[in-house]
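Researcher: Let's try something more involved. This one mixes different molecule types, so please make sure each is placed in the same coordinate frame as the others.
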Amino acid sequence: MYLVKVYVTYKDSVLDPQGEAVKGAVHRLGYQDVASIRIGKYFEIKVAAAAGKTETDVQQEIEAICDKLLANVNMETYRYEISWLEEVSV
Amino acid sequence: MKFAVIVFPGSNCDVDLMWAIKDIMGAEAEYVRHDADSLAGFDGVLLPGGFSYGDYLRCGAIARFSAIMSEVIRFAEEGKPVFGTCNGFQILTEAGLLPGVLQRNESLHFISKPVQLTVNNQTAFTSEYTADEVITIPVAHGEGNYYCDEETYAELAANQQIVFRYTENVNGSIHNIAGICNRAGNVLGMMPHPERAVESLLGSDDGKRFFASILKNFGKVPVNG
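Model: All components are placed in one shared frame. Result:
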C-alpha cells in the first residue's frame, strides 16, 4: 500500500484572506516577527498496490486526482510525497 | 421555453429560482435532481444558490461531478442557455464552463444585502437593460471574491464577457466583477441573486428584465410580463 501526502496551497500570486487574518491574530499575540502565514489543505491518501503498479503509476494517478478535484489550478498549487506503507494485518 | 432548475444536496435557492421563472415570468420549469442523467425536453438550465455538498473541499468542487453536470456541460456546448447564481456560479467555474474562481470574501464576512451593479447590456442575458444601467440586486455569500489572472481578465474585457460589476467592491473581486459569461455568450454566472429581485414588494424588481432577456433571446415563446 502506498501512502501519499498531498499539500494544496494558494499560489504565491493569490491573496489568502484567511492567512492574513491569522497573521493579524499572531501579531496581536505579540509575535511581530511573523512575516507571512498562508493556509493550505493536507490530504493523506492510501493507494492499493495492485500487482505491477509502480510508483510512477501512483504519481500519475495522484496528479490526475489533484488536477481534477483536490486543487483548483486557477488559484492553487500542490505537491506530494509518496511512501510505502506496510499493511497491518488485523 | 422550458427550464430545468437543478437541485443539488444543499441547494437552498432552488425554490426562489422556480418562483422567478415560473410564477413571475410565466415560463415552464421543472426541478431536476443532481443524480438525473438527462436534460431532454429542456431549453434552458438554471443552477441555484446554496451550499451544494456542504461546500466541502471548495465551493462547487463536488457538485461539479454530479451525474447531471456532464449533461449540463453537453447542453452548454450545444449553445443552449445555462445560468448559475451564487453557488451556481461557483459550480460553473469549477466545471470549467466559465473561467476564474470564487474565493473567500476579502473581509472574511458573509455578506447579505442589496448591492448596485452596472450592467453590460451587450449580451443575450441583459439586452432588456439600457447601456451601463445601474440596478439593485441582493447578494448573499461568503465566497464571492472573483479571481482570475490578468491575461484571462484582458480576454474577458476584450470579448464583452464581463456582464455585471459592483459599483462598490463588496467582496474583493478583481475589477469589481460580479458576473461573467463565456465566450459564446450562452453560459452566465453571477454572485448576486436576480431571482430575489423580481417583485417591488421585495425591494427591487430589477432582476425581472434579466429573465425577460433570456426568454426573449433564447426562447421561442413571447415573454409574459
